[in-house]
Amino acid sequence: MNSRELILKALYKIEEDGAYSTKTLNDALKKADSTDRAFITEIFYGVLKNLITLDYIIMQFSSVKLKKMSVWVKNILRMGVYQIYFMDKVPDSASCNESVKLAKKYAHKASVGFVNGVLRNISRNKENIKFPERKNTVKYFSVKYSYPEWMVEKFINQFGESECEEILAESNRSHPVMIRVNTLKASKEELKERLLKENNISAFYDSDAKNCLIVDGGLDINQISAYKEGLFSLQNKSSMLAAEMLDPKSGEFIIDVCAAPGGKSAYIAELMKNKGRVLSFDIYEHKTKLIEKSAKRLGIDIIETRVNNSEILDKELIGKADRVLVDAPCSGLGVIYRKPDIKFSRKPEDIKELSEIQLRILKTSSRYVKQGGVLVYSTCTILDEENSDVVRKFLSENPEFEMTEEKLLLTHKTGGSGFYIAKIMRNCGSGAGEEA
Fold first, then answer.
1. Could you tell me the residue range of the domain that residue 194 belongs to?
2. Catalytic residue among 96, 212, 258, 380
3. N or C, where is the chain less crowded by C-beta within 10 Å?
4. Is residue 345 classed exposed, middle or buried when 0-12, 13-18 and 19+ CB atoms within 10 A define those classes?
């Protein structure tokens, strides 16, 4: 199976089966030659990141509406247009010819000529493609940056037009890999030197997260002995900052209520110098197994996993935890730059539903915090509706808690994922969280 077939089948899985982009791409890359992996990755993510733009271009040259096309034909056209319009290194003729070959194999016979005609027409007229006028801001941003209009509207309402455009533009750019040094086994300096010496990988220090290294170029963890030995983990610095704001201490009892895949739990244990107890919840058993596997690789033995629905109170834990982390399920709008399918899988009604879940989890989890203890609430989205609005509603109903620190991290400002973190203290002398 050639590289373009692998891309087409991966895109089909995303659209038809609702598959996750990261896993789908990884599965495709396992079947590809090493020389084709960069090409596959570029087109796969290029199509997903620019889907609305590509469809807008296609509809200027197609007599058939998109909804009338098969999923195969749509994605063959999208791949072809992406190569023609966005990629200089692929000749237009090759893009057209390879698309026709795919159509012959995966589409109805009548579609072959249709695909050929549309793509060659676009190739001849790509300098004359018309886009919405800037004065229609929502439509203009939607097509230029390939975002659904409802997301554009939310970002404009919260951030204003100028910063909204910065957010949209940044999410379509590529970003470096970030890794978290396991300080139980190595220092930042030691890992940095080892990666350069053994793998010819350059890395540099991050100024925000204290144990973060930013990798210059790609990183295949399967080929790196330092990873297998547990000297580092893949983790974005924004996630690291949530664990750092929790500020865990050796010997404490910490609960991570939405822990999978376990990166924050592991970092918490590392910050505790592997002394104390970390209780990590997830609603799915197979995900708790991932946490355990990660802890074993890292040499951590203080993490205990538990299958648990974090909306439901565990009475035995009331008032027992020194610190609780609530990294709540969210819309993921802060990580679109690495999960572009979020733009199309999320719906406007999801936001309200998620905010209600987040508040329930926050209320339940707060009951575990000791008097004088710490509660950190975080998400990988940037919408107030899932962040500050949730926290303020919680605080209005729970006066024994007080917010002491709050951060909204935006990718175009920090280089990390879009993220929200709030640190909340439970006042001493309050008994509202104790079991009556």
1. 178-234
2. 380
3. C
4. middle
pLDDT tens string 200-247: 999 999 999 999 999 998 888 988 999 999 999 999 999 999 999 999
What is the three-class DSSP state of 256?
A: strand
Asked if 314 and 223 sit in the same domain, the reply is no
52 closest CA partner among 226, 168, 155: 168
The neighbour count for residue 243, using CB atoms within 10 Å, is 29
* CATH code for the domain in which residue 83 is found: 1.10.940.10
In a domain, 436, yes or no: no
Q: Which of 333, 332, 405, 327 is nearest to 362 (CA)?
A: 327
Model confidence over 333-360: pLDDT tens digits? Answer: 999 999 999 999 999 999 999 999 999 9
258 is catalytic: no
Identify the helix (H) or strand (E) that includes residue 350.
Answer: helix 348-366
Tokens of 94: 């090759």
pTM of the model: 0.93
Contact 256, 272 (CB under 8 A): no
Co-location of 309 and 420 in the same domain = yes
Q: Read out DSSP for 266-312?
A: HHHHHHTTT-SEEEEEES-HHHHHHHHHHHHHHT---EEEEE--TTS
Contacts of 362 (CB under 8 A, 6+ apart): 326, 328, 375, 377, 390, 391, 394
Helix (H, G, I), strand (E, B) or coil at 132: coil
Would you give the DSSP letter of residue 136? S
